[in-house]
Amino acid sequence: MSEKLMKYSDAVKEFDPVFGLETHVELCTQTKLFCPAHEEFGADPNTELTPVSLGLPGSLPVVNKTAVDFAIKLGLALHCEINEWSQFARKNYFYPDMPRDYQISQFDKPTNGNGYLDVDLEDGTVFRVPIERAHIEDDAGKNTHVGGSDGRIEGADHSLVDYNRAGVPLIEIVTKPVEGAGERAPEIADAYMRTLRDIVRALGISHGRMEQGNMRADVNISLRKKGETKLGTRSETKNVNSFRGIKKTLQYEIRRQAALLDEGGEVLQETRHWDEATQTTAGGRVKSDANDYRYFPDPDLVMLHITQEHIDEITKTMPEMPREHRARLQEEWKFSDLEMRDIINADALDLVEETIKDGATAAGARKWWLGEISRVANEHGLSLEELPITPADVAEVEKLVAEGKLNDKLAKQTVTGVLAGEGTPDEVVKKHGYQVVSDDGALEKAVDDALAADPEIAEKLKSGNMKPMGAIIGAVMRATHGQADAKAVSALVIKKVKG
User: Fold this and answer.
1) Quick check: 486 pLDDT over 70?
2) Among 367, 369, 497, 487, which residue's Cα sits nearest to residue 436?
3) Which domain holds residue 448?
4) Which of 62, 249, 334, 412 is the most buried (most CB within 10 A)?
């Protein structure tokens, strides 16, 4: 049964959205948080385990120092207060993918607290998102539901559990309630997640790939009447793993909750799930409060003592942060604010940067990633990174153009071939015989034929009227199957009509 929705513009006129994000970032350490088991995405199920990650009786956890250092790095990047003493606690709940029946997390003594993150919006506005905490915990396993549609539990006849991910180190970044966002709440949440992704990649602490579960967010949202200060009842949509999903979740929940409240109903505090296929959220279980988890200090783990000296050592290793990095690149590339913003909004900054490092010009790299390649990505509903083309491929196409071996049309056809899985640019060029006509005799004959076929245009060109030049170039291109260089054709035409 479909739920009643209010028009989004009406909802944000009547109500003030207050949202929060709980973002889980999977750390790229060599081993798990409390044991030496290795974990790699895509490994055979239940092959990367130890007694500790399975929660077997008598097994004892030992904390991964690298994971703690990663947490400190992120705390510094988020302008957090890094606590001298922090503590692991047991968060007790039963779920099939949690082999111990409790998660080792941090409760009242997290490693990082009270920070903020400034995010840049599309129009250049900067919005500050307050951070409550960024604490360390281990991940659960993964349930796979079999027999239903799209791996969903609805309609499934049985479920399988893969414990490979159980025990993988996470940092959970919890925002404070984000107020004052108004109608831009979905946009701000999206920008926040993208900025956070860029930061963890820059720090080298996570791959930040949402489609692989390296990053995922629980999306909290509540509404209150305009002018009121008391927070409304919130819903929490669990494990949203795409930027688009986070935006759409907020938009849908604002519309759903507004329709409920407008009719005098009440919002149920519950967990919900985002359905990408229907672009809707669906109700799950009633949301637990913190005291329902019966937190208590883990008796097998001592408190973490983080000295100022250690923080100072890590501070010295901090890389350039994304905002400063973008500003430097924009200056180096000589791009306008709008040009740079287009690259960032297309999530193409890393790809453009790598393409330039591989030898392409800044303008060329931007043209390809934001042009033909983006068009194909949008057509197939994929991110740029998911397409079968690399920065090195794009740089190679640019090189072939610069060397005069391909013209713009052939370069586009070459890129199309790479995207179709036909191989590298060189392989595509060889397969289809793409090459600019370099035989001066063949090009001259094509120009002569084109001028002879249209004497009227030829006369106009001779009199100095260059407007019909495009018609002659087009005729030559057809004659050479698109393999002539337009600049060379134009130069040859001018030489002939003036000669």
Assistant:
1) no
2) 487
3) 440-498
4) 249
